[in-house]
Protein backbone atom coordinates (compact mmCIF):
# COMPACT_ATOMS: atom_id res chain seq x y z
CA UNK A 1 0.00 0.00 0.00
CA UNK A 2 1.27 3.51 -0.88
CA UNK A 3 2.33 5.42 2.19
CA UNK A 4 -0.15 7.98 3.48
CA UNK A 5 -1.44 9.37 6.76
CA UNK A 6 -4.87 7.77 6.67
CA UNK A 7 -5.40 5.39 9.58
CA UNK A 8 -4.70 1.76 8.70
CA UNK A 9 -7.65 -0.59 8.82
CA UNK A 10 -6.58 -4.21 9.09
CA UNK A 11 -10.21 -5.30 9.18
CA UNK A 12 -10.77 -3.70 5.77
CA UNK A 13 -7.59 -5.20 4.35
CA UNK A 14 -8.54 -8.67 5.58
CA UNK A 15 -12.04 -8.37 4.14
CA UNK A 16 -10.71 -7.19 0.78
CA UNK A 17 -8.28 -10.11 0.55
CA UNK A 18 -10.92 -12.66 1.57
CA UNK A 19 -13.53 -11.19 -0.79
CA UNK A 20 -11.16 -11.18 -3.75
CA UNK A 21 -10.01 -14.73 -2.99
CA UNK A 22 -13.56 -16.07 -2.74
CA UNK A 23 -14.80 -14.24 -5.83
CA UNK A 24 -11.69 -15.22 -7.77
CA UNK A 25 -12.14 -18.84 -6.75
CA UNK A 26 -15.80 -18.67 -7.67
CA UNK A 27 -14.91 -17.18 -11.02
CA UNK A 28 -12.32 -19.88 -11.79
CA UNK A 29 -14.79 -22.63 -10.89
CA UNK A 30 -17.45 -20.99 -13.03
CA UNK A 31 -15.21 -20.70 -16.07
CA UNK A 32 -14.05 -24.29 -15.57
CA UNK A 33 -17.64 -25.52 -15.42
CA UNK A 34 -18.54 -23.52 -18.51
CA UNK A 35 -15.56 -24.91 -20.43
CA UNK A 36 -16.52 -28.45 -19.43
CA UNK A 37 -20.09 -27.95 -20.65
CA UNK A 38 -19.15 -26.12 -23.83
CA UNK A 39 -15.90 -27.76 -24.89
CA UNK A 40 -15.95 -26.34 -28.38
CA UNK A 41 -16.19 -22.73 -27.23
CA UNK A 42 -13.27 -22.55 -24.80
CA UNK A 43 -10.91 -20.43 -27.00
CA UNK A 44 -13.56 -17.76 -27.50
CA UNK A 45 -14.54 -17.77 -23.82
CA UNK A 46 -10.97 -17.38 -22.56
CA UNK A 47 -10.01 -14.69 -25.07
CA UNK A 48 -13.11 -12.57 -24.44
CA UNK A 49 -12.82 -13.00 -20.65
CA UNK A 50 -9.14 -11.96 -20.71
CA UNK A 51 -9.77 -8.90 -22.88
CA UNK A 52 -12.69 -7.73 -20.77
CA UNK A 53 -10.79 -8.18 -17.51
CA UNK A 54 -7.71 -6.26 -18.71
CA UNK A 55 -9.87 -3.49 -20.15
CA UNK A 56 -11.82 -3.20 -16.91
CA UNK A 57 -8.68 -3.03 -14.77
CA UNK A 58 -6.96 -0.33 -16.84
CA UNK A 59 -9.92 1.79 -17.89
CA UNK A 60 -12.42 1.31 -15.05
CA UNK A 61 -11.72 4.70 -13.48
CA UNK A 62 -12.26 6.57 -16.75
CA UNK A 63 -15.36 4.54 -17.56
CA UNK A 64 -16.86 5.19 -14.12
CA UNK A 65 -16.04 8.91 -14.17
CA UNK A 66 -17.47 9.33 -17.66
CA UNK A 67 -20.62 7.37 -16.78
CA UNK A 68 -21.27 9.60 -13.77
CA UNK A 69 -20.77 12.81 -15.74
CA UNK A 70 -17.48 13.89 -14.14
CA UNK A 71 -15.64 16.68 -15.94
CA UNK A 72 -12.15 17.66 -14.83
CA UNK A 73 -11.83 21.25 -13.62
CA UNK A 74 -8.84 23.53 -13.09
CA UNK A 75 -8.08 25.52 -9.90
CA UNK A 76 -9.29 28.63 -11.72
CA UNK A 77 -12.63 26.99 -12.53
CA UNK A 78 -13.23 25.53 -9.06
CA UNK A 79 -10.94 27.25 -6.53
CA UNK A 80 -12.93 26.19 -3.44
CA UNK A 81 -12.99 22.49 -4.36
CA UNK A 82 -9.31 22.50 -5.34
CA UNK A 83 -8.46 24.23 -2.05
CA UNK A 84 -10.26 21.52 -0.06
CA UNK A 85 -8.54 18.74 -2.03
CA UNK A 86 -5.15 20.45 -1.53
CA UNK A 87 -5.66 20.60 2.24
CA UNK A 88 -6.75 16.97 2.53
CA UNK A 89 -3.85 15.76 0.36
CA UNK A 90 -1.44 17.76 2.51
CA UNK A 91 -2.88 16.23 5.69
CA UNK A 92 -2.82 12.73 4.20
CA UNK A 93 0.61 13.13 2.55
CA UNK A 94 -0.68 11.72 -0.73
CA UNK A 95 -0.47 12.89 -4.36
CA UNK A 96 -3.17 15.28 -5.51
CA UNK A 97 -5.74 13.53 -7.71
CA UNK A 98 -7.51 14.92 -10.72
CA UNK A 99 -10.39 17.10 -9.55
CA UNK A 100 -13.76 16.91 -11.29
CA UNK A 101 -17.30 18.22 -10.97
CA UNK A 102 -20.47 16.48 -12.14
CA UNK A 103 -23.32 18.77 -13.17
CA UNK A 104 -26.07 17.19 -11.07
CA UNK A 105 -28.39 18.48 -8.39
CA UNK A 106 -28.06 15.13 -6.58
CA UNK A 107 -25.73 16.00 -3.65
CA UNK A 108 -22.96 13.40 -3.71
CA UNK A 109 -19.29 12.69 -4.30
CA UNK A 110 -17.13 9.80 -5.42
CA UNK A 111 -13.55 8.83 -6.20
CA UNK A 112 -12.20 6.46 -8.83
CA UNK A 113 -8.75 5.08 -9.51
CA UNK A 114 -6.69 1.92 -9.08
CA UNK A 115 -3.89 3.71 -7.20
CA UNK A 116 -3.02 7.06 -5.65
CA UNK A 117 -1.24 8.26 -8.79
CA UNK A 118 -4.19 7.62 -11.09
CA UNK A 119 -7.16 9.01 -9.22
CA UNK A 120 -10.11 11.30 -9.83
CA UNK A 121 -12.17 12.80 -7.02
CA UNK A 122 -15.49 14.30 -8.04
CA UNK A 123 -18.21 16.32 -6.32
CA UNK A 124 -21.57 17.18 -7.79
CA UNK A 125 -22.75 20.75 -8.17
CA UNK A 126 -25.59 19.87 -5.79
CA UNK A 127 -23.10 18.89 -3.09
CA UNK A 128 -20.92 21.99 -3.53
CA UNK A 129 -23.96 24.24 -3.27
CA UNK A 130 -25.24 22.70 -0.04
CA UNK A 131 -22.18 21.99 2.14
CA UNK A 132 -20.09 24.27 4.31
CA UNK A 133 -16.28 24.14 3.80
CA UNK A 134 -15.60 21.94 6.84
CA UNK A 135 -18.37 19.54 5.79
CA UNK A 136 -16.96 19.37 2.27
CA UNK A 137 -13.52 18.59 3.72
CA UNK A 138 -15.00 15.64 5.57
CA UNK A 139 -16.62 14.28 2.42
CA UNK A 140 -13.47 14.68 0.32
CA UNK A 141 -11.39 13.03 3.05
CA UNK A 142 -13.90 10.15 3.05
CA UNK A 143 -13.53 9.68 -0.70
CA UNK A 144 -9.75 9.93 -0.72
CA UNK A 145 -9.53 7.34 2.06
CA UNK A 146 -11.16 4.88 -0.35
CA UNK A 147 -8.28 5.50 -2.74
CA UNK A 148 -5.64 5.35 0.00
CA UNK A 149 -6.97 1.98 1.20
CA UNK A 150 -7.31 0.75 -2.42
CA UNK A 151 -10.82 -0.47 -1.82
CA UNK A 152 -12.03 1.45 -4.90
CA UNK A 153 -9.94 -0.83 -7.11
CA UNK A 154 -11.00 -3.95 -5.21
CA UNK A 155 -14.68 -3.02 -5.44
CA UNK A 156 -14.39 -2.31 -9.15
CA UNK A 157 -12.73 -5.64 -9.90
CA UNK A 158 -14.98 -7.62 -7.55
CA UNK A 159 -18.12 -6.13 -9.06
CA UNK A 160 -16.84 -6.74 -12.56
CA UNK A 161 -16.25 -10.45 -12.01
CA UNK A 162 -19.92 -10.99 -11.22
CA UNK A 163 -20.94 -9.08 -14.36
CA UNK A 164 -18.37 -10.99 -16.39
CA UNK A 165 -20.03 -14.25 -15.38
CA UNK A 166 -23.15 -13.16 -17.21
CA UNK A 167 -21.21 -11.96 -20.26
CA UNK A 168 -19.30 -15.23 -20.55
CA UNK A 169 -22.54 -17.16 -20.19
CA UNK A 170 -24.06 -15.34 -23.14
CA UNK A 171 -20.91 -15.90 -25.20
CA UNK A 172 -20.89 -19.57 -24.27
CA UNK A 173 -24.56 -20.02 -25.07
CA UNK A 174 -24.19 -18.28 -28.41
CA UNK A 175 -21.01 -20.06 -29.42
CA UNK A 176 -21.58 -23.36 -27.68
CA UNK A 177 -25.02 -24.21 -28.96
CA UNK A 178 -23.77 -23.90 -32.49
CA UNK A 179 -21.44 -26.82 -31.75
CA UNK A 180 -23.34 -28.85 -29.18
CA UNK A 181 -26.18 -30.98 -30.47
CA UNK A 182 -27.93 -34.02 -29.09
CA UNK A 183 -29.79 -35.09 -25.96
CA UNK A 184 -27.47 -33.12 -23.65
CA UNK A 185 -28.37 -29.77 -25.21
CA UNK A 186 -31.46 -29.30 -23.04
CA UNK A 187 -29.47 -30.04 -19.87
CA UNK A 188 -26.84 -27.47 -20.87
CA UNK A 189 -29.54 -24.90 -21.61
CA UNK A 190 -30.76 -25.24 -18.01
CA UNK A 191 -27.41 -25.73 -16.27
CA UNK A 192 -25.52 -22.73 -17.66
CA UNK A 193 -28.05 -20.00 -16.72
CA UNK A 194 -28.49 -21.66 -13.32
CA UNK A 195 -24.76 -21.75 -12.60
CA UNK A 196 -24.40 -18.17 -13.84
CA UNK A 197 -27.21 -17.00 -11.57
CA UNK A 198 -25.61 -18.66 -8.54
CA UNK A 199 -22.21 -17.13 -9.32
CA UNK A 200 -23.72 -13.67 -9.74
CA UNK A 201 -25.78 -13.96 -6.54
CA UNK A 202 -22.79 -15.01 -4.43
CA UNK A 203 -20.47 -12.36 -5.88
CA UNK A 204 -23.22 -9.75 -5.41
CA UNK A 205 -23.63 -10.55 -1.71
CA UNK A 206 -19.86 -10.64 -1.13
CA UNK A 207 -19.34 -7.22 -2.74
CA UNK A 208 -22.27 -5.76 -0.80
CA UNK A 209 -20.77 -6.95 2.49
CA UNK A 210 -17.42 -5.44 1.59
CA UNK A 211 -19.05 -2.21 0.40
CA UNK A 212 -20.84 -1.62 3.70
CA UNK A 213 -17.70 -2.18 5.74
CA UNK A 214 -15.53 0.03 3.53
CA UNK A 215 -17.95 2.94 3.99
CA UNK A 216 -17.62 2.69 7.77
CA UNK A 217 -13.84 2.44 7.37
CA UNK A 218 -13.76 5.55 5.17
CA UNK A 219 -15.90 7.49 7.66
CA UNK A 220 -13.53 6.52 10.47
CA UNK A 221 -10.36 7.34 8.51
CA UNK A 222 -11.71 10.71 7.35
CA UNK A 223 -12.84 11.67 10.85
CA UNK A 224 -9.46 10.82 12.37
CA UNK A 225 -7.52 12.58 9.60
CA UNK A 226 -9.45 15.85 9.79
CA UNK A 227 -10.05 15.65 13.54
CA UNK A 228 -13.63 16.81 13.00
CA UNK A 229 -15.98 13.83 12.99
CA UNK A 230 -18.87 16.18 13.78
CA UNK A 231 -18.38 17.97 10.44
CA UNK A 232 -18.53 14.65 8.59
CA UNK A 233 -21.64 13.67 10.56
CA UNK A 234 -23.22 16.99 9.66
CA UNK A 235 -22.42 16.48 5.97
CA UNK A 236 -23.78 12.94 6.07
CA UNK A 237 -27.03 14.07 7.73
CA UNK A 238 -27.43 16.99 5.34
CA UNK A 239 -26.75 14.94 2.20
CA UNK A 240 -29.07 12.12 3.26
CA UNK A 241 -31.84 14.58 4.09
CA UNK A 242 -31.43 16.51 0.84
CA UNK A 243 -31.50 13.30 -1.22
CA UNK A 244 -35.05 12.72 -0.01
CA UNK A 245 -36.11 15.97 -1.71
CA UNK A 246 -34.58 15.09 -5.09
CA UNK A 247 -37.04 13.87 -7.79
CA UNK A 248 -37.15 10.08 -7.96
CA UNK A 249 -36.33 10.02 -11.68
CA UNK A 250 -33.03 11.81 -11.00
CA UNK A 251 -32.20 9.44 -8.15
CA UNK A 252 -32.87 6.42 -10.35
CA UNK A 253 -30.33 7.68 -12.88
CA UNK A 254 -27.73 7.82 -10.10
CA UNK A 255 -28.74 4.56 -8.39
CA UNK A 256 -26.54 2.23 -10.53
CA UNK A 257 -23.48 4.00 -9.10
CA UNK A 258 -24.50 3.76 -5.44
CA UNK A 259 -21.47 1.66 -4.54
CA UNK A 260 -19.17 4.55 -5.50
CA UNK A 261 -21.13 7.37 -3.88
CA UNK A 262 -20.65 8.99 -0.48
CA UNK A 263 -24.32 8.31 0.26
CA UNK A 264 -26.70 6.02 -1.66
CA UNK A 265 -28.99 7.80 -4.09
CA UNK A 266 -31.82 5.39 -3.31
CA UNK A 267 -32.17 2.91 -0.48
CA UNK A 268 -33.77 -0.51 -0.87
CA UNK A 269 -36.44 -0.29 1.79
CA UNK A 270 -37.38 0.68 5.31
CA UNK A 271 -34.47 -0.91 7.07
CA UNK A 272 -35.49 -4.59 7.08
CA UNK A 273 -32.77 -7.19 7.47
CA UNK A 274 -33.17 -8.21 3.83
CA UNK A 275 -32.86 -4.64 2.54
CA UNK A 276 -29.77 -4.07 4.67
CA UNK A 277 -28.27 -7.26 3.22
CA UNK A 278 -28.64 -5.83 -0.30
CA UNK A 279 -27.52 -2.30 0.57
CA UNK A 280 -24.22 -0.81 -0.59
CA UNK A 281 -24.00 1.41 2.53
CA UNK A 282 -24.56 0.97 6.25
CA UNK A 283 -27.60 2.67 7.70
CA UNK A 284 -27.39 6.36 8.52
CA UNK A 285 -27.80 5.53 12.22
CA UNK A 286 -24.83 3.14 12.12
CA UNK A 287 -22.60 5.70 10.46
CA UNK A 288 -23.62 8.49 12.85
CA UNK A 289 -23.18 6.21 15.86
CA UNK A 290 -19.61 5.40 14.81
CA UNK A 291 -18.80 9.09 14.29
CA UNK A 292 -20.25 9.83 17.72
CA UNK A 293 -17.92 7.25 19.28
CA UNK A 294 -14.93 8.79 17.49
CA UNK A 295 -15.92 12.23 18.76
CA UNK A 296 -15.99 10.93 22.32
CA UNK A 297 -12.63 9.19 21.87
CA UNK A 298 -11.02 12.37 20.55
CA UNK A 299 -12.51 14.40 23.39
CA UNK A 300 -11.00 12.02 25.95
CA UNK A 301 -7.57 12.43 24.40
UniProtKB/TrEMBL annotation:
Source superkingdom: Bacteria
A GO cellular-component term linked to this record: plasma membrane
Instruction: List where in the cell it is found.
Output: Cell membrane
Q: Which Pfam families match?
A: Peptidase_M48
Query: Which stretches are transmembrane?
Result: 12-35, 41-59, 152-173, 185-206
Which keywords has UniProt assigned to this entry?
Answer: Cell membrane, Hydrolase, Membrane, Metal-binding, Metalloprotease, Protease, Stress response, Transmembrane, Transmembrane helix, Zinc
Q: How is the cofactor bound?
A: Binds 1 zinc ion per subunit.
Record: residues binding Zn(2+):
142, 146, 215
The UniProt entry lists membrane topology as: Multi-pass membrane protein
Active site as annotated? 143
Q: Outline the extent of the Peptidase M48 domain.
A: 75-292
Q: Recorded E.C. number(s)? A: 3.4.24.-
Q: Which cofactor does it need?
A: Zn(2+)
Q: Which GO terms describe its biological process?
A: proteolysis
Q: Which GO terms describe its molecular function?
A: metalloendopeptidase activity; zinc ion binding
NCBIfam families assigned to the protein according to its UniProt record, in alphabetical order: PRK02391.1 (NF002669)
Query: What is the similarity comment for this entry?
Result: Belongs to the peptidase M48B family.
Q: Which HAMAP family match?
A: Pept_M48_protease_HtpX
Q: What is this protein called?
A: Protease HtpX homolog
Q: Which organism is it from?
A: Actinacidiphila alni
Amino acid sequence: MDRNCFADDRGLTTRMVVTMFLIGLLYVVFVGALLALLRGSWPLILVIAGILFVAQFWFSDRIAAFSMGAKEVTPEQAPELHGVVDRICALADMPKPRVAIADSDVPNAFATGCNQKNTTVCATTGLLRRLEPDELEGVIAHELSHVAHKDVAVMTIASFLGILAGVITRIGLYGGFRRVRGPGTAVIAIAIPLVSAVVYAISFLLTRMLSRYRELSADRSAALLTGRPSALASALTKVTGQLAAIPTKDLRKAEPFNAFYFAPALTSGAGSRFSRLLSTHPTLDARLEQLGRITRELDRH
